[in-house]
Design goal:
Chain lengths: 402, 402
Amino acid sequence: MISFPHLADIVRKNDAKIIMLVISGMGSAPDPVLGRTELEAARIPNLDHIAQQSSGGLTIPVSPGIAPGGVGSNLALLGYDPIIHASGRGAIEALGLGMTMESGDVALHGNLAVVDSDGIVVDRRAGAIPTTTAAPLMAKLKAITLPGVDVEVVAGVGHRFSVRLRGKELTGGASDTDPYEDRLAAQSSSATAKGGEATADAINAFSNQAAEALVGEALANAVLLRGASTMPELASFNDSYALNAAGISSFPLYVGVAKATGMTTYPVDDAFESHITAIREHWDDHDFFWLHYREPSTTAGIRDFNEKKRALERVDLHVRELIDLQPDVLVIAGDVSNPPGSIGHSWHAVPFVIRSAGTFADSGVVRFNERDLRSGSLGQFEAKHAMMLTLAHAGKLKQFGA
Amino acid sequence: MISFPHLADIVRKNDAKIIMLVISGMGSAPDPVLGRTELEAARIPNLDHIAQQSSGGLTIPVSPGIAPGGVGSNLALLGYDPIIHASGRGAIEALGLGMTMESGDVALHGNLAVVDSDGIVVDRRAGAIPTTTAAPLMAKLKAITLPGVDVEVVAGVGHRFSVRLRGKELTGGASDTDPYEDRLAAQSSSATAKGGEATADAINAFSNQAAEALVGEALANAVLLRGASTMPELASFNDSYALNAAGISSFPLYVGVAKATGMTTYPVDDAFESHITAIREHWDDHDFFWLHYREPSTTAGIRDFNEKKRALERVDLHVRELIDLQPDVLVIAGDVSNPPGSIGHSWHAVPFVIRSAGTFADSGVVRFNERDLRSGSLGQFEAKHAMMLTLAHAGKLKQFGA
């Protein structure tokens, strides 16, 4: 559901072209020792210059205090209500990996993992094994069959895979086997909602067969599954906004977000330059480009301040190439915050700027970071409003009401 | 619907008197050449002084990116949810012009206009013809009758009029004949919702008869109609807030907003001084005064930066007379933004201050404008919360919850 209820009454098609760059995990809180965030510490003169030319502010990913997942936080920036659309990760990621999801299909995110003889997780990510090394193990998972349930496995990046379950009476209402932290016990799946038993049984049967198939492997001896879900129903992005959108991301979950909202997707690799190349090649084919650059978030996942800083500096090196394309509106946003010292996502507000012919410098905003953008003209606002601001700056919204 | 759902539990009557001055179209974005807004360019020492003494911030008229009409944006400042109450312009304006609106009556806003022989609009406002010059043309419209539909026309200011249709099976679900821009074709009305056919037929029949009646007139040869609506159901302002409110405006639409919410209205002319005189004359009769001053918005409609600046300076010349009345709470707000270079209303946040015995200077706010008030203590907030802030400053709200 698009968050502004009367969108259809006010949306207007025009020729304006929009780029929305989402720098994943961009937001932060100051490092307790350095007293600065990664953005504050980074050398990002081009982003600073863009902030000086733009209207700026901070987005609250969901609502104050809420640390969102990748699905909800990105759907919010695309105008979907993240409180309604927080789930569906398993199905969306499977879609992003090229799986066909039919109505009633359930998919989960899987990790290859190492578990000890007591079932305690030693390494949730099997040493962050490279994709090529994981391939023979993935082949063993692909050979798994279950009675009465059609199983399909698709390998993702490194230790990651998706598994789709197709059969009667399957629902998304089954719990994860992944305990989310090392040194905790791998779980048995159970129903979390009425009718989830068959799915939980299939998840447990798959997990058991995977453990058997991996006996004797040195790098991984178990799988951990999470996010059981059917495909969420999402309003078409293009129909809702009268746009023809391209979604550009190297990461299956976000390729899935783009596909699930009806965008055309193009394959790219992890490098920010690859995203830029894709947008340049398809510049004439679309009027909205959603660029999701994952690297700052990945690096934040292992909580390395300097790695995240460098990933942000790599954006800065190439961001002017987006301006060279002469978009009518350039939005630079982040999906979530990943503060130093935190395990994962946080609730902290995230830098947001809009650069267009109709916007002017926000007095006092000198740098592109959390502290300076606090005084920007857009203030702090919930991320679900970002698309309406974007469309407004592109002249794509009529007056609401007489 | 009042936007705070538990208002009845916490509202409390006391003797405090409130003035809410709404300066229409006050907000803006910087002029692209000057780099300043009209408020920033204006010499407004009295408003600056009030901002220094007040709690201040910026209102978001509806939600980020949404440019609202006059009805929704003003109802929001009075505490009504502008997403629910965005329509009804035709009926509200008719009410403001003194028309009686019964249940089922449909009213529209009308313009006298000039249309060429191909039906293309040459001048939507018939040269902004003066009221007295328009009078004989209005007399011709008043003589129009339709079979099965009772028609009443009331002249407004200049080229404007209201037309009320009374008959069986009429609804608000019929489209406008006004194309909203010159050089576009005048439209035929059609049903926009189930059951709107009879209304569309009546609108088209009225338009045809008007064109016939105006044959041979030099100043206008057509009418353009918009905003077909029945009377919206609005909770009583006085009952909801335990107030006895006066609504003061020279403009029929806003007189209509005051009447539609149940306020007592007093006739005034366009000059700001006239509004002040009305409030002074009726000071003892009410505890809430809604002053809607239209001039800055009118002038912004023709996009003249200096005209709007001068209209704001005229407020400044007299605004201390409001303080001389010693209100317990003085609110100075704007309904929408009207940036230079834009055709109409915009989404930009609008200056807002509250001056009362219980408020203190907001550190750092030196001037009454968009930029300074960004750092005010009230922050940016949706306009629908303005009334609750106003009542709170007047001591008219009890604690919510135990």
